[in-house]
Amino acid sequence: MKVFVLGVKRMTGLSKKTQNPYDFAQVIAALPLRPVSRENFEISGYGFEPAEFECHNQAVRQFEGLQLPALVELETAHEPGRNGMRVVVTGVKAVTSAPKAASA
C-alpha cells in the first residue's frame, strides 16, 4: 500500500484502569481525501486527510533511516481484532514519486 507517511509513534506504559502494561505502535499517514455523496450525507474537499494504522513494534525500526514525511510502500497484513479484521503494518520500503491529492 503506497502512502505518504507523516510519522510513526510507539506508546508504552501502564493502563490507568487495570494497571496492565501496554506496548503498541502506530503509523500516521496522509491519505487522499475521498469525496462521499449519499442521500443525507456528503464529504467534499481537496488534498489529504490523516489516517492511523496499527504497526508491529518490530516494524518501527524500519522507519529509522527514512526522512519523514516520505512516500513509502507499507507492507501490511490482515489480523483479527476486537471488531473483525484489521490492517496492521508489518514493514516499509521507500518510494520516490510524490502522492497525488484528491480534488472535489
Please give a structural write-up.
It is a single chain. The protein is mostly beta strands and 104 residues long. It has one domain (2-35, 42-94). It is 0% helix and 60% strand. The chain has no helices and seven strands. The strands form two sheets. A five-stranded mixed β-barrel has the order 1-2-5-7-6. A two-stranded antiparallel ribbon has the order 3-4. The model has no long low-confidence stretch (mean pLDDT 90).
Largest sheet, order of strands side by side? 1-2-5-7-6
Average pLDDT value? 90
Structural class: mainly beta
Helix-strand pattern:
EEEEEEE
Radius of gyration: 16 Å
Count every beta strand, where a strand is a DSSP E run of 2 or more residues. 7
Major beta-sheet overview: 5 strands, mixed, barrel
**Fraction of helical residues:** under 10%
